[in-house]
Amino acid sequence: GNSVTQMEGPVTLSEEAFLTINCTYTATGYPSLFWYVQYPGEGLQLLLKATKADDKGSNKGFEATYRKETTSFHLEKGSVQVSDSAVYFCALSSPLDSSYKLIFGSGTRLLVRP
Amino acid sequence: DGGITQSPKYLFRKEGQNVTLSCEQNLNHDAMYWYRQDPGQGLRLIYYSQIVNDFQKGDIAEGYSVSREKKESFPLTVTSAQKNPTAFYLCASSTQGGPIYEQFFGPGTRLTVL
Lengths: 114, 114
Prior knowledge:
The complex is a heterodimer of chains A (114) and B (114).
Chain A: E1 3-6, E2 11-14, E3 19-21, E4 23-26, E5 32-38, E6 44-50, E7 56-59, E8 62-65, E9 75-77, E10 86-93, E11 103-104, E12 108-113
Chain B: E1 4-7, E2 10-13, E3 19-25, E4 31-37, E5 43-51, E6 54-57, E7 64-66, E8 76-78, E9 87-94, E10 104-105, E11 109-113
């Protein structure tokens, strides 16, 4: 079945450091890929998305590129801030699944220290 | 402001009781979803509805029920048949069902069984 694998956290960085959170997926067909962010005690917010191979999603300094050949969608940011501390979820939605549900990875907690 | 509201934010239930979680959206979205989040895990789909008066079971529907009598409302009932209901419940909606459409999430309801 379809699945998403994320690197385990927590990831602890100093402010202004470079961030990479790895995400790989298994899916038939051509899924859409998403990164969501969850702040403590809150729901999820869409950070960025990509709907076809080689698309790059970007928002608030975060970027991720849909790599079909490596089935990956790694999240990157050049310079993190304390306010980026949150849990990040990689997710996919398959056009072959009539529910169009999101399949999530287990989440990666990011802690940015001043 | 358009968005999704969930109530209550915190809910405590005694064993053997049914409880209903509210989800309302004013985004004029056709599709609505209920997910369950357990600590350190991603979200899993409980039920979904792509149109009024129709809904389908997700991956973990046992012990739950829903209704979709109005476009803007998708309440979830956690019944006494749900063996381990303590979790964070998130409601989401999207413009329509489809893999490319972003799902918008509510702030969640944290249910604790006493």
